[in-house]
Amino acid sequence: MSSNQSIYQKYNLKTVINTSGRMTILGVSTPREDVVEAVNFGLNHYFEVKDLVNKTGRYIADLLGVEDAVVVSCASAGIAQSVAAVIVKDNLYRLENLHAHPHDVPSEIVVPKGHNVNFGAPVGTMVQLGGGTLREAGYANECSPAQLAAAITPNTAAILYIKSHHCVQKSMLNVAQAAEVAKAHQLPLIVDAAAEEDLQCYYHMGADLVIYSGAKAIEGPTSGLVIGKQQYVEWVKLQSNGIGRAMKVGKEGILGLTQAIASYMTLEKESGQQMVEKMTAFIENLNSLNGVQAKVVWDSAGRDIARTEIAFDHAALGISTQEIVDRLKNGDPAIYFRGYKANEGKIEVDVRSVSAEQLHTVYQCIKALF
Ligand SMILES: *Cc1c(COP(=O)(O)O)cnc(C)c1O
pTM to 2 decimals? Predict the structure, then answer.
């Protein structure tokens, strides 16, 4: 703790209370000690990196019961390299000339329109980095299996499905349905499950490649995981001599994420019910404030995550929710909420990354505003 404090002082950094969840803009998560030890071991030793990549991939694949796996630098890199993999396959010329000119192989990536989101960077940018072109299927508010299939052409290289709370959820086909469409057209299905908690279900639903962010649910170091069918994972690995070099993952990231996955699969997770218990006093305190209403809400993407939703009565408080969010963000400590619904007068508090003490600080800072 003392060395942490000195880093904040040394660079004059703002201290942060993160009630927004696994957010890249705040540093995502704080890995456990066993992960830090694995990172440390990696930093202090040499390896044949290919050997390290292959054997850790094998170890992770066996843990998860999938054909193969590879650690990459982040989920975004996983998307870009997966797209490049399905276009380039094992062709050396295309590997080394991906962006030099168009290639005489399929390069379109079909994505449900409601999945063409900005997760902090646009999905389309990652597809383009991988040498692909995005082709949208369906509409902003719907995509059925038939609409997905209708967007497939002879130039389609893969179907990409984004499993995320960022996406449109209603009238949207599920992963198993997307897998059926892919199979019927002999195309690979790539699933971006960056922030998802289940490391096996999308593979079992028929995805050929599934991508996870290493620091989100898994709480590893900055890294990403790509799992899937042997042949496709092999092609992803080849990208380390192509676009993958610009998104290189280090030995420390590879060993850190591998350890984090092993722990993630064995340790008991904090359940939604435990999160509810953690926030009960906080909710009671908030509800004692005039013009403030707090309650438990469950994750909109269906994960076992409970959060506190706080609704502000603008008329009673004389201040808009956006102003409240901004003031708390600019305070000391800076408090970050989930602000997706600020325009509806509501914010959400994710308690996974905060202590009970920090939660009380959040309450006091809200109280002090009025
Ligand atoms: C976070 C996220 C990403 C990017 O993950 P990184 O590991 O930060 O690159 C991609 N897709 C979705 C849906 C995400 O939530």
Answer: 0.93
Q: Would you state the pLDDT for residue 1? A: 46
Contact 252, 39 (CB under 8 A): yes
- Tell me the pLDDT tens digit for each residue of 309-322: 999 998 888 999 99
Class of domain 7-27+270-368: alpha beta
The verdict on domain 33-266 having CATH code 3.40.640.10 is yes
Residue positions counted in the chain: 370
Q: Domain boundaries in the chain? A: 7-27+270-368, 33-266
Find out whether 167 and 144 touch, Cβ atoms under 8 Å: no
Q: How far is the CA of 360 from the centre of ligand 1 (A)?
A: 30
Give the pLDDT of residue 126.
98
Q: Give phi and psi for 77, each to the nearest 5.
A: -65, -35
> In angstroms, how far is CA 311 from the centroid of its own chain?
27
Q: Which token pair is 108?
A: 């379109």
Contact 308, 272 (CB under 8 A): no
CB 364 within 8 A of CB 33: no
Residues with CB under 6 A from ligand 1: 24, 74-76, 119, 162, 164, 166, 192, 194-195, 213, 224
Mutation choice for ligand 1 from 73, 213, 257, CB with most ligand atoms inside 8 A: 213
- Pocket-testing residue among 192, 210, 223, 350, ligand 1, by greatest number of atoms within 8 A of Cβ: 192
Task: Give me the residues of the chain with pLDDT under 50, please.
Answer: 1
Q: Rounded to an integer, what distance in angstroms lies between the CA atom of residue 97 and that of residue 11? A: 42
- The three-class DSSP label of residue 355 is coil
What is the residue with the minimal CA distance to atom 1 of ligand 1?
Answer: 194
**Which residue stretches of the chain are H helix?**
2-10, 33-43, 49-64, 75-88, 92-96, 123-129, 145-150, 175-184, 201-204, 230-238, 251-266, 272-287, 314-317, 321-329, 356-369
CA 222 vs CA 68, 219, 253: distances in Å: 21, 9, 7
Nearest-angstrom CA–CA distance, 363 and 359: 6
- Residues contacting residue 6 through CB under 8 Å, at least 6 positions apart: none
